[in-house]
Amino acid sequence: MKFFVSYSVFLFAMTFPFPAVADPEAEGRGDRLVLRDTDKSLAREKAARFGGSRDLRASKPRRDSACFFRNQAAGRSDDARRYEPTFRCGARGITATDAQPATAPQVTEGDIRRAVSEIPMPSLQIQVQPGERTLVNVPTIFHTDPRTLRESVTLLGFDIDVEATPTRYTWHPGDGTSKSTTKPGRPYPAKDVTHTYRRVADEVRPRVDTTYSVRYRVDGGAWTPLGQTLTATGEPTSLEVEEAAPVLVTR
Questions:
Q1: Entry pTM
Q2: What is the pLDDT of residues 14-44, one digit of tens each?
Q3: Structural domains of the chain, with CATH
Q4: How far apart (Å, rounded) are the C-alpha atoms in residues 19 and 28?
Q5: pLDDT > 70: what percent of the chain?
Q6: Which of 133, 135, 144, 228 could join 124 via S-S bond, C-beta 3.0 to 4.6 A?
Q7: What is the rounded CA–CA span in Å between residue 131 and residue 128?
Q8: What does DSSP say about strands 239-242 and 201-204: parallel, antiparallel, or unpaired?
């Protein structure tokens, strides 16, 4: 009779294997194989057969516990997390695949450079003297008001400080010509940057494009050059070009 019972238990165990899970009360001190069944004698026998523990405390419902079990199907080990509405570890519930704990986010130099290069650079407004109207064959003064951009962004938890300094100005008078300078120009009477229009025009739209030299640092570290310049297209202004006609004045 004893042999028949033992053999029946063996057949039942091979047909309906009990899930093996980590004891949630172990608190990180190592996983113990715990077999769950209301028949404690059967659980002890299966624990002894598979080299498991006789500790049945995990059968007790415990709130907010997440139980792990290992599936040895097809000779492959798959980790999964079992969620059960009644918070009973090992009870039949919903099984969802759970990836390994996520590692800390990694930011490459390429990621940083892309993030920095996407920061909009400030466009500068061109100033013209004389304003609104100018004359052909007379130097027209251009200048602008440069400023250094200081910006901070966060990328995957890393604080990135960005500093962009204007280094080159490309002047577009609006008549199809252009020229570049390293100076932003100054207002009259200075003549650092000038242009002479050769033809009359009802309207030209001069502008200045600004090229920035950019550097950045991560979490307050050393400054690193971006390795490329960034250019902002300026806002154009309207200007009329007239021709001065000599007038004879008598007194």
A1: 0.57
A2: 555 544 444 444 444 444 444 444 555 555 5
A3: 2-96 (no CATH), 109-242 (2.60.40.10)
A4: 20
A5: 56
A6: 144
A7: 5
A8: antiparallel
